[in-house]
Amino acid sequence: MDGAQISLFGALALGLVYGAAFCYRGKGPVALLVKTGSTALLALWAYLAGSPVLLVAALALSSAGDAFLALEGERWLKPGMAAFFLAHATYVALFWGLEATPRDILDSSAQVVLVFAGAGFARWLSPWLGEMRWPVFAYTAVILMMGAAALRLDPVYWPVTLGAIMFIASDMILSLQLFRKPADQPVGTVSSLGVWTLYFGGQALIAWGMLNALA
Question: How big is the chain by its Cα radius of gyration, in Å?
Answer without folding.
Answer: 17
